[in-house]
Structures are given as structure tokens and as C-alpha cells.
Amino acid sequence: MPNDSIQLHLSDADATDALGAALAAARANAAQAGVLIVHLHGDLGAGKSTLARALLRALGVQGAIRSPTYTLVERYPLSDGGEAWHLDLYRIGDAGELEFLGLDGGEASLWLIEWPERGLGWLPAPDLRIDLAQDGAGRQARLNALSEGGQAWLVALADATGAREVAADS
């Protein structure tokens, strides 16, 4: 299993938006692997929804991009013909509740999942894990590839942005 990772300091909301746009641009290299699953980790207010919104916008989503805090899942058509599912599992009480959301994955080419630990056992394994944490006025972002698709995504992101890769245990 690949263990490549990239760590970034995001100085402000614009930097978080720029990361979302860079991830969208780099996604084409990873999309050859098929459906891509992203697990977004971090405390409340760490920027998970902000990053997801920026990524979706850069992938061509038009109109309002709503947080799925109450609906649990929002579905968005992408400009490349695929569909993205944005899930926020903060409010579920038991992972078994996901059974009733109709998440068979047939239509989704991209899953963005906030609070994935609450759906443990019911969610597909991630290709990319993104951990966000407050860091003064900004944020720290650590992106970990957990599959070949995730690794291809991070390599393309590093090539496009000059982001440095860090050892998995650093």
C-alpha cells in the first residue's frame, strides 16, 4: 500500500481554496483508477467543508454547494460527466444508518466524506486521507495516499504545486 504524504501550511481561506483547485486539477491523473474516495478528518471548524466546496467548485459544480450537515449527503454533477457525493456524517448516531442513504456508489466518481470514522464498516476504503487542523490563523493539511489512485493524485498534486512529499511517519 502506498504511504506517500504531503504536508502543507494553509495560511488562510484563500490558501484552502487554492488547495481545492489544485486537487481538482490533479484529479485527472488519479481518475484513471476509477472512483476516488476522500476521507476528510479534522475538528469542527478545521476547514473540511471549505476544502470540499473549493474542490467541487473547481470540478465545475455550478450553483449553491450546500453543506450536507443535515441532509448527510449532497450529490453534484461534475463537468466531466461524473457525479460527486459530499457526505457529512457528524450527525449520525450509528454507522448502520448509512444503509438507508442508498449509497451504492454506482453513480459517484468522487466521494468526499467528512467525519468518516462515524461510518466505519459501511464506507468504502479511502484513496486519499486529508487531515486538517487549526494552526494559528491558518491550517495544517496532511494528505496521505492510501491506494494507487491516491498515490497518482498526490504525485500529480506535488508536480503541479511543488508541494514537498514527507515521510509517512513524520
Automatic annotation (TrEMBL):
GO biological process: tRNA threonylcarbamoyladenosine modification
Pfam families assigned to the protein according to its UniProt record, in alphabetical order: TsaE (PF02367)
Record keywords, A-Z: ATP-binding, Cytoplasm, Magnesium, Metal-binding, Nucleotide-binding, tRNA processing
Localization, UniProt: Cytoplasm
GO cellular component entries: cytoplasm
GO molecular function: ATP binding; metal ion binding
InterPro entries: P-loop_NTPase, T6A_TsaE
Domain of life from the UniProt record: Bacteria
Protein family: Belongs to the TsaE family.
NCBIfam families: T6A_YjeE
Protein name, entry field: tRNA threonylcarbamoyladenosine biosynthesis protein TsaE
